[in-house]
């Protein structure tokens, strides 16, 4: 990865550029008090920052409590995504109300989409992109769903994860071939997923462990359908495994027992939840009794998560080296177990070896690996049970963690 300690021209909004440059040199980068938006709610980040993935204008190694992502007010941020392919790298994406996308952090493969391969510690605009409706971030590549229900991608493409029929990296958005009527996207370490409005899932990129779900181990540079999978309403991608919710999502007002979680791909640590450690090249049923049904699914690198029942409780399974399953142990779980002491969960996201959850009171809890402060509780001590994240925000409604990285975002 090439690391640039100064942002190139055009990366920052003009009004902030001079201030950020000056403050960065002094090691004091922050939103200056005198600016018009100084008191507005802002996007926050914490954890590892060696590639500028916290977006706060510094290269400080890590932050154990929330810092401010420069230049982005909470009101203008519609969706956020976090990517990363190792403990010390990562990148962030923010979809804004004007349907443009801002990016920051690692950029050695062009995953920031600004036409360069220089890493940046503050947000700047993805080029040639003005009609996005969703974003997803993988190991070193990024995806955007467009208003016309097609998908574009940029960044690393060594396994075809950009889906444009080549293996060439791209530092600007390129069209994913052969996809339309897409309603959701997800990005793994080196592969990508799209959910179409007909309930089918399409996958492309790296496939050595069956993560494309087409019954083979052949990587693909264009999307192909996941075998024997229909009626899908939610998708999630881990490093090398995937989850799909089949059937309508449950909710407090409309609980359902008619949905199921399917999984496929790498399974050495039980992340598929099928009571085995055998990798699967096509979808299998995740075991467990989903009382009241499943409302949400999420995947960390090698662990998996599902929000279930009318109380919005959380179940987790898979790798648990650092306590990322959250059950008070470091035992791997090959079937789902309940995370104790949590209810009212609104959102959940999985990182490399940590998990973050947004509760109904708009506060954040986190657990697992904390070597870079990615739990945000002011320490670097791992926790196998949920701890309170110090976000310095009220009314959080968005969270993100990178599938292969060690930082977190909240808005």
TrEMBL record:
Provide GO CC annotations from the record.
Answer: cytoplasm
* Pfam families, A to Z: RCC1 (PF00415), WD40_RLD (PF25390)
- Keywords, comma-separated and alphabetical: Repeat, Signal
Q: Which residues cross the membrane?
A: none
Signal sequence region: 1-38
Q: Which InterPro entries match?
A: RCC1-like_dom, RCC1/BLIP-II, Reg_chr_condens, Ub-ligase/GTPase-reg
Where's the RCC1-like domain? 40-283
The protein depicted here goes by the name RCC1-like domain-containing protein
Lineage of producing organism: Bacteria, Bacillati, Actinomycetota, Actinomycetes, Kitasatosporales
């Amino acid at each position: 990865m090439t690391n640039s300690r100064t942002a190139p021209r055009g990366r920052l909004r003009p009004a902030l550029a001079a201030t950020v440059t000056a403050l960065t040199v002094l090691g004091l980068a922050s939103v200056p008090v005198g600016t018009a938006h100084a008191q507005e709610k802002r996007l926050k980040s914490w954890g590892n920052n060696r590639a500028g993935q916290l977006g706060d204008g510094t290269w400080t190694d890590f932050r154990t409590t929330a810092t401010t992502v420069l230049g982005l007010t909470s009101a203008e941020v519609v969706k956020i995504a976090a990517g990363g392919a190792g403990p010390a790298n990562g990148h962030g994406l923010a979809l804004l109300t004007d349907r443009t996308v801002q990016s920051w952090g690692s950029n050695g493969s062009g995953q920031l989409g600004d036409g360069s391969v220089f890493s940046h510690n503050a947000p700047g605009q993805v080029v040639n992109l003005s009609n996005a409706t969703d974003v997803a971030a993988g190991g070193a590549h990024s995806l955007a769903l467009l208003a016309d229900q097609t998908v574009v991608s940029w960044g690393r493409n060594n396994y075809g994860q950009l889906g444009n029929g080549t293996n060439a990296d791209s530092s600007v958005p390129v069209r994913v071939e052969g996809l339309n009527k897409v309603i959701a996207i997800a990005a793994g370490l080196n592969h990508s997923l799209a959910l179409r409005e007909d309930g089918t899932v399409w996958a492309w990129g790296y496939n050595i462990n069956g993560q494309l779900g087409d019954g083979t181990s052949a990587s693909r540079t264009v999307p192909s359908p996941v075998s024997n999978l229909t009626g899908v309403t939610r998708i999630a991608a881990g490093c090398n495994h995937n989850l799909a919710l089949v059937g309508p999502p449950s909710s407090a007002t409309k609980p359902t027992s008619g949905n199921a979680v399917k999984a496929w791909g790498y399974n050495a640590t039980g992340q598929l939840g099928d009571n085995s450690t055998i990798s699967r090249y096509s979808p299998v049923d995740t075991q467990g009794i989903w009382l009241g049904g499943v409302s949400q699914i999420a995947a960390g690198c090698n662990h998996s998560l599902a929000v279930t029942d009318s109380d919005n409780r959380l179940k987790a399974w898979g790798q648990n080296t650092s306590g990322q399953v959250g059950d008070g142990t470091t035992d791997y779980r090959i079937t789902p177990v309940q995370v104790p002491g949590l209810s009212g969960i609104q959102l959940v996201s999985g990182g490399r070896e940590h998990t973050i959850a947004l509760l109904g009171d708009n506060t954040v809890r986190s657990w697992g690996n904390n070597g870079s402060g990615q739990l945000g509780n002011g320490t670097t001590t791992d926790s196998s049970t949920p701890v309170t994240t110090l976000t310095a925000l009220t009314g959080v409604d968005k969270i993100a963690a990178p599938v292969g990285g060690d930082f977190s975002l909240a808005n």
